[in-house]
Amino acid sequence: MSGRKTPPASDSMRHILSVLAHLGWGLSRLPAPGPLKGASEPSLRETEWLALPLPDGTTLLCAALPFELPDLRQSFEHYEDLALVHRQILRGLDSAGVAGRYALLVGGEAAHLIDRPAEDILVTTSTREEAGDRLYPLLDFQALSRGSLSSFPRKPLRRRARELADWTHLWSARIGSELELTVQAMQGFFEWLHLARLADVRHIGPVNGSFRDSAGEMNAHTIRRFIDERFRLLHGTWNFLQGDSNAQSNPGILRSIDDSVLTECISSYALLSSSKFASDVFAEALADEEMQHLSWKSSVTADTRWIDGDENNGDALLNSTVRFELDRQGCSQLLRCFDTLANAVRIDAIDRESARERGERPGLQLDLLTESPGDINPREAARHVLRRMLRVNASNTRHATLARTILLARACEWHSAHGVGELPFPRVSVAVSTTFTSTGHDN
Fold this sequence. Notes:
Blueprint: H1 9-22, E1 34-35, E2 48-53, E3 59-65, H2 73-77, H3 84-95, E4 102-107, E5 110-115, E6 120-125, H4 128-134, H5 136-139, H6 141-145, H7 157-179, H8 183-201, H9 220-237, H10 250-256, H11 259-269, H12 279-285, H13 289-301, H14 314-319, E7 322-325, H15 326-329, H16 331-357, H17 381-389, E8 390-394, H18 397-418, E9 430-432
Parallel strand pairs: 3-4, 7-8, 8-9
Antiparallel strand pairs: 1-2, 2-3, 4-5, 5-6
Helix pairs in contact: 7-8, 7-12, 8-18, 9-10, 9-11, 12-18, 16-17, 16-18
């Protein structure tokens, strides 16, 4: 935090409210700004905040800080999305139970506008003149009514993926060189860490705390215990590390990292945007150059029909097997294939439930040679696809591990949205060969 002398938070709040009033905001009946009681950092307890309604029904949270906001160049050079003060302010607002789509932070003459759910910094200004040119036009009330914030450009997926890959390479190289570990071992460690963060973002598992809470809050001992708890949860309960030959070495890597390096690494990790921890981002960030190019090429040229025959024939659909060649079609197409199958199974299961409620006998199959799959709960759609339908071929172990990782990430997202039934996740069948032979088995 800068040592530059800044006006009190109350003065900054009065200034921003005066500006918003000139921009057409009706602020006559607002409550008085309140202190940020949820802030753990003493210097932040003098922060004042106020929730302002936006024309689209969402909320802008204004927070006036008693110190100058930091220059973000160093954060961005380390491939981080936020500075520590952003994480502390957002966590303080969360603790206070304050909901808001956007957050406007003002400290001294600097201002930062944040898309809160995406954890993206949309605009940063360092002087009031710069704010008048670049920030305030977005906050004009008429401009807001026309969607100035919702249409403001966000980071594209490929940029998020590139930044996550660069952050991962930076810390893989630093830790790997100190511990004399192979690139493959470090890839396995950080891919597991990324899956754990995705599960954290999606609220998977009854574990207290989150990676976001790690920023400036934990010592090396609590960080190790915190991460090891997630390792055991995802490995033992959720079966996330299936097929990963490095899975059992991850706790050893965790114990071997120097205390100061581990604390610095996880503190930096907590400053990455949670929006980077998604299966689509992983499919790009964790892939090698060959697979990235293949994914781009196949997105333009590949045949995206995954289900042969009549998709409306429920029993035929549920008994079908889709064999996916990863090294011909790429990671992004693998996720599209999974979504297509899971959506088709889910719709079929919903139709069957509706038919049963009407007293009908859905899926009556006259072909005695076709095995009936029985009733499937719509929440079991993703599980059924992983367990019974989708079979993936990969040309090498690295690509096979990547396929499992992104499929489990997608399944985690499906669980968050729809549920996946009983735990653990079923084995994801990926074969390392040019001709498919299943390596998976059901749990």
